[in-house]
Amino acid sequence: MSDYLKAAPVIIALMGHTEDVVDGRFSVMGGSAIHSDGKYYWRRDTAEYVETYGSLLPAEFIRHGAAHGWTVPPLTDDEIADIDDFFMSLRRS
Length: 93
Hints:
The chain has 4 helices and 5 strands; from the N terminus they run αβββββααα. It is α+β, with helices and mostly antiparallel strands. The protein has one domain (2-92). A 3-stranded antiparallel β-sheet has the order 1-4-5, covered by helices on one side. It has a two-stranded antiparallel sheet with strand order 2-3. β4 (34-36) and β5 (41-43) form a beta hairpin. The protein is globular, with a radius of gyration of 14 Å. The termini are far apart. 14% of the residues are buried. This is Cytochrome c domain-containing protein.
């Protein structure tokens, strides 16, 4: 599951360095970057929380990933741009 989270394209790349807020076991360069599989989106460091602590994800997301064989569906450049536009519209609101 963490491989799926890491494999999804980056929609918004953010420079920075995030630290594990639970127990300080990891840090992630660009950890607050946003990834998406076209239906769901998450921060880059989500994968480390899943790997390190076995953090649970919503059942709907699990069903979605399993339905795709834990392979991220390909997104076109236009789909990625549309998702980016969505996030930018949130900033303008």
